Each structure stands twice: as structure tokens, then as C-alpha cells.
Amino acid sequence: MPEILDAPKTVTKDALDLPWNVVVHNDPVNLMSYVAQVFQKVFGHSRQRAEKHMLEVHRLGRSILWTGGRERGELYVQQLHGWLLLATLERTA
User: Fold this and answer.
1) Does an H or E element contain 72, and which?
2) Handedness of CA 26, 65, 34, 58 (dihedral sign)
3) Residue ranges of domains in the chain, CATH in brackets
4) Which 3 state secondary structure label does DSSP give 4?
5) Beta strand pairing status for 87-91 and 62-68?
6) Are 23 and 12 in contact (CB under 8 A)?
7) In this predicted structure, what is the pLDDT of residue 12?
8) Which of 10, 54, 73, 88 suits a disulfide with 36, CB 3.0-4.6 Å?
9) Going edge to edge, which strands form the sheet with 62-68?
10) Phi/psi class of residue 44: alpha, beta or left (left: φ > 0; alpha: ψ in -120 to 50)?
11) Average pLDDT of adjacent 10-residue blocks, the chain of 93 residues
12) From CA 48, how far away is CA 15, in angstroms rounded?
């Protein structure tokens, strides 16, 4: 008897519409001042807000930098990777 395989998982429109978090994780390589500058360039954060997130990454190991649609979140993660920061996209629900 042939083996029955599960159907491939597809991303539904509802899953794309859910809010997604762009999360930056701590790394031992980049200087804190560099990380804050990247947050200003990529997200347009003020210096004060960028430093707040940078300190959160440093102290807690991660910080949610942005929440919104998946496509835009993927773009932010790619941009952060381009600046050599460790970033992920996480579903909120």
C-alpha cells in the first residue's frame, strides 16, 4: 500500500496579513554605536530611540524593532542582514 504524505504547507493570505515582528538579536561582533546607527538608517529612528533598542538588544539579547505586514518585515530583515546584524521575522499570533 502506498504511503500517504501530508499535503505541503502553504502560506495563506490570513497568515500574511497577521502582524509580524522584526527582531534583532545580540551578537558579540558589532559595536553598540554601529548597531544604533543601523537602526537609524534602516528604520529612520531618532538617535534616542535607536539607542533604547540597542541597549535592549545588549541587555536582553533581543529587541522588537518593527511590527507590521510580512512582506515589509522580510525587507527589513534583509536590510539588517546587509548591515551584518542578526535579525529574524517572527509571527505575533
Assistant:
1) helix 70-82
2) negative
3) 17-91 (3.30.1390.10)
4) coil
5) unpaired
6) no
7) 60
8) 54
9) 62-68, 20-25, 87-91
10) left
11) 52 69 96 97 98 97 97 98 98 86
12) 33
